[in-house]
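[Help] Beginner question about ligand-bound structures

Sorry if this is basic. My supervisor gave me a protein sequence and a SMILES string for S-adenosylmethionine and asked me to "get the holo structure". I don't really know what that means in practice or what format the answer should be in. Inputs are pasted below exactly as I got them.
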Amino acid sequence: MDDERYARCFFAAVAPAYPLVEWLFRASYRRAVELLVAGAGGVPLHSALDVGTGTGLLAGVLAERLPAVTGVDTVPAMLRVARRRHHGRVSFLEMDATCLDFPPASFDVAAAGLVLHGMAGARRQAVLEEMRRVARHRLLVIDYIPHRNPLVQAIEFVERGHYREFIAEIPDQLRWVGTDLSIHPLNPVLGAYLVRLGGQEGDNGRAERRECP
Ligand SMILES: C[S@@+](CC[C@H](N)C(=O)[O-])C[C@H]1O[C@@H](n2cnc3c(N)ncnc32)[C@H](O)[C@@H]1O
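Answer (accepted):
No worries, everyone starts somewhere. Holo just means with the ligand present. The predicted complex, written as structure tokens, is below.
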């Protein structure tokens, strides 16, 4: 089974138990969103897209600070939990993050929580380019920082993630799509990676939408 199909089956199977991860990481996610808002430097952040939203943890935390939040994911079972938990506060859509069905610059912020380490380099790059295309001002990535403890190793084993490649490649990939990369540890294993889009606010030199299958 290829990576992508395995991930879909894996997340469909763990969807009912995933709120445990929300309980573990909610405080760290809140800290990341504080950093995002504080770092905006006066640029008003109104709307956000959360790609690979899962059960909507990051989307829900973003919705505490921003009035218009959308979450997308490819796994219906995760989205069912997300809609139940965040009903009326966040819009959730079934959509592939490598091929987002939104016009350029649709959101002020594009965010991804614990999504990108699960992808091999080219796929991760495709998601980042789509995030840049649909966002105007900032990207927020919450994901692993270099600290591979036994818990991370166990999760990586069952999830079939790409921890090592992610840690090695993500700083350059983020510098490729944005500027002023800053990395903020949130807890021993997770960090907030923040980048600004474009040389001028609102102008990120975004490319056209990718050809979608
Ligand atoms: C580890 S979960 C993280 C969920 C949530 N962002 C969080 O921080 O709790 C990874 C999620 O990414 C989703 N995902 C993986 N590849 C995706 C893709 N290409 N497009 C959209 N969602 C994807 C999975 O279905 C899963 O729900």
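A couple of things worth pointing out: The radius of gyration is 16 Å. The chain has one domain: 3-196. Feel free to follow up in the thread.
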